[in-house]
């Protein structure tokens, strides 16, 4: 705002009232109407003024209902990841998820069309991202690749050659300094991220070697940290006695219910049991070039001792720089939901819980 930009935030909002008060235009919308709400913001903006639009969709969050797109995805044609059982209810769940992904994609297309109609498509920087992996077990809230590797697509015809693919590491903390540099502004001293503007013209540029991820309370007690390089993912888990339970919406999903049933019958594969069984390892190391689903833990293998030492050192340095300390199990927020049923637990003595 202070730099002369008209700012808008339309859609889902998790950043608190204090941030809302700093934007010029704030609107919400239901998922089906989100594309129209984004387009309206572009139509309502002041003529001739540079703008920033935060367009946040609630797709593909749970719960799912048929009818998001027509025709819908066929469950029989869905590719089931190896960390899910191939069951009809799982396929149906995935198909509904892909329906909402497709609706999100359609709404992005509406924005691009509106930019073109206003003659702004060539000089508007468009960045499409997701905040986490799909809302399924082994994905959302996990700090390995299925949990944190998300779409990261940039469109800027005036500044980027079409079809380039950058394979080096970037992190969402890099977005703010990148946007500020494009706007001719300096980043704040408190920013942890690095601008990836140079990567836009040369996808081989490396702006960072490592990205970091953290898992604190999200419905359930947790404390994990991860280091991601181009080739490896290292995870440090401070709670080996606690299952890798997905968030409560995923616990309530058809997919997780099927997994619990099969687990009780002893019919899950080893790669499907990680979110249910305990104990879990304190350290994980995955070769993401060969194992992008993060199913084979290499942490205890002698051939990877140098690599895990390197990743440990990177995590230790990052924790020092960010003043990140494990508070002890008693200092962690307790579970807010039952891990098997997803039912809310009432704990009036803890401020994290709402009755």
| β-strand number | 9
- What is CATH's topology name of one domain? Arylsulfatase, C-terminal domain
Structural class by secondary-structure content: alpha/beta
Main sheet summary: 4 strands, antiparallel
State the helical fraction: 25-40%
What's the end-to-end separation, in Å?
Answer: 38 Å
Write the layout of secondary structure elements.
Layout: E1 6-11, H1 17-20, E2 25-27, H2 34-44, E3 51-56, H3 88-117, E4 126-129, H4 145-148, E5 152-155, H5 175-182, H6 197-201, E6 211-215, E7 224-228, E8 232-237, H7 248-251, H8 254-264, E9 283-287, H9 305-322
Parallel strand pairs: 1-2, 1-3
Antiparallel strand pairs: 4-5, 6-7, 7-8, 8-9
Helix pairs in contact: 2-3, 3-8
Offer a few descriptive terms.
single chain, 355 residues, alpha/beta, Arylsulfatase, C-terminal domain, four-stranded antiparallel β-sheet, three-stranded parallel β-sheet, 27% helix, 12% strand, globular
Q: How would you describe this protein?
A:
The mean pLDDT is 94. The chain contains 9 helices and 9 strands. The strands form 3 sheets. Strands 6-7-8-9 form a 4-stranded antiparallel beta sheet, covered by helices on one side. Strands 2-1-3 form a 3-stranded parallel beta sheet, with helices on one face. Strands 4-5 form a two-stranded antiparallel ribbon. The chain has 355 residues and is an alpha/beta fold. The chain is globular and about 60 Å long.
Summarize this structure briefly.
This protein is an alpha/beta fold. It has 9 helices and 9 strands.
């Amino acid at each position: 705002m202070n730099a002369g930009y008209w700012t808008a935030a339309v859609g889902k909002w998790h950043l608190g009232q204090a941030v809302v008060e700093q934007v010029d235009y704030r609107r919400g919308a239901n998922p089906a109407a989100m594309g129209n709400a984004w387009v309206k913001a572009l139509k309502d903006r002041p003529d001739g003024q540079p703008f920033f639009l935060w367009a946040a969709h609630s797709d593909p969050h749970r719960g799912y209902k048929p009818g998001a797109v027509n025709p819908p995805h066929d469950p029989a044609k869905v590719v089931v990841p190896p960390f899910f059982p191939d069951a009809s209810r799982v396929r149906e769940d995935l198909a509904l998820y892909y329906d909402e992904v497709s609706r999100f994609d359609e709404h992005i297309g509406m924005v691009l069309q509106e930019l073109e109609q206003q003659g702004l498509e060539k000089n508007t920087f468009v960045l499409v991202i997701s905040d986490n992996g799909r809302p399924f077990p082994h994905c959302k809230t996990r700090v390995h690749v299925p949990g944190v590797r998300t779409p990261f697509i940039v469109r800027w015809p005036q500044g980027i050659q079409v079809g380039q693919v950058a394979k080096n590491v970037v992190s969402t903390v890099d977005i703010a300094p990148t946007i500020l540099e494009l706007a001719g502004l300096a980043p704040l001293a408190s920013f942890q991220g690095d601008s990836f503007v140079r990567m836009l013209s040369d996808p081989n540029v490396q702006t960072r070697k490592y990205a970091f991820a953290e898992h604190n309370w999200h419905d359930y007690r947790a404390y994990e940290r991860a280091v991601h390089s181009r080739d490896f993912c290292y995870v440090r888990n401070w709670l080996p006695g606690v299952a890798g339970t997905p968030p409560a919406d995923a616990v309530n999903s058809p997919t997780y219910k099927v997994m619990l049933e099969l687990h009780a019958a002893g019919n899950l594969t080893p790669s499907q049991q990680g979110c249910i069984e305990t104990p879990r390892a304190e350290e994980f190391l995955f070769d993401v070039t060969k194992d992008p689903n993060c199913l084979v833990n290499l942490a205890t293998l002698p051939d990877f001792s140098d690599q895990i030492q390197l990743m440990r050192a990177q995590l230790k340095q990052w924790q020092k720089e960010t003043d990140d300390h494990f508070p002890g199990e008693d200092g962690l927020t307790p579970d807010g939901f039952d891990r098997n049923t997803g039912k809310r637990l009432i704990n009036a003595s803890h401020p994290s819980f709402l009755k």
